[in-house]
Amino acid sequence: MPLQQQRPTGKGANQEAVRRHNLGTLLGHVHRDTDVSRADLTTRMGLNRSTIAALVVELERLGVVAQASPRGDRQGAGRPSLHVRPGERHVCVIAVELRVESIEVARISLGGTVHGRLSVPVEVGASPEQVADQIARTAADLLDDVPPDTLLVGVGVGIPGVVSADDGRIHYAPNLAWSDVAFTELVQDRLGGEVPVVIGNDANLGVLAEHARGVARGMSDVVYLSGDVGVGGGLITRGRSLLGTVGYAGEVGHMRVSVGGRLCRCGNRGCWETEIGAVAVAEALGTPSHDIAHLVGLLDQVGTPSVALREVGRMLGVGLTNLINIFDPQVVILGGLLSALYPAVSAEVDAEVVRGTLDSEDRRTEVVLPGLGRDSVLVGAGELAFGAMLSDPLLVVAAAEEAVRRVRVAAA
Ligand SMILES: [Zn+2]
Q1: How many whole angstroms from 256 Cα to the centroid of ligand 1?
Q2: What's the average model confidence in pLDDT over 333-362?
Q3: Last residue of a domain, one of 86, 116, 134
Q4: pTM of the predicted model as reported, rounded to 2 decimal places
Q5: Does the residue 23 lie in any domain?
Q6: How far apart are CA 301 and CA 299, in angstroms?
Q7: Which is it for the CA torsion 322, 373, 226, 385, positive or negative?
Q8: How far is the centre of ligand 1, averaged over its atoms, from the C-alpha of 90 (Å)?
């Protein structure tokens, strides 16, 4: 259900919109840094001290932030600037990551602390309705022991597939064998109908999380690759997510790298994921299983890579070269199976990247592993769920007052 609000009209409406926007921006700084001085907020937001003070008081009244003296020693003379932190009230989201073999669900509070986490197995061939049921039950379990005045401000779900940012539908999720599913609606219905649910492509959420809290913090241009059976890309350029017209951008696994190469799940030949995905890695390792945990275990034990595995590494480098030449990122982050593949074949990958990119010696894109390990997508789902709160806290708090009770009732 879309959120609605009554807005005043005319000049007052404009000022009101600016104030709400500023409240969200300020709360965003507290969410990302968990402890930020009012002096810093003044500088970062370009507003005067009294405006910042008024905004903080308003958020404090909602219980979502609190003010305190700075931790540690006082510096210099005079009164130190008060610090702003997440408030007494438990403001949280439910973050969900659909993996091929499991559903990961976490309760994450303002500031990014994970308060509870459950992993439930998914049966092969599970329907969207069954998975939505499992998400709702698991979310209710995680909300079982929260304080009475908890605010549940959203639910974010990471999907291994192509997702429309406009209408919350899953266009195509090959690993789950789903296509054209109104998944946002399915989950929302099972959560009692009123909690805002947002879904996102897993790689897009991976890049969001690594940019907010991981290895790409503070960077403006980032490429994140999720790689398991398929390979997906999440892109940030000049500080903004690159999603394309309806959110389908970043399907880099279907970049054609080999004319007349192997047949891909998409029906074409020579796609990048046919060269570096789980099937290609399993073949190079000489194992019939495509199970990700099994492949990661084997990759961890590789000493000297075989000729076949080195070729997989070379093809990883070929695709990275294309991406680096197109997007000129500061870093490329290798997630999922690729984070285990890279250490085994880094010599081949790096040689190909150095040979193929237009970077110079002193300005070279770094290829790195995720700062959040296996949890980038889950953390990104949490960031996605906080999005509405950080754009208009007043609106979302009013709607969230009842949310925890509704989810529990719906699951009962
Ligand atoms: Zn393909």
Answers
A1: 8
A2: 91
A3: 86
A4: 0.89
A5: yes
A6: 5
A7: negative
A8: 44
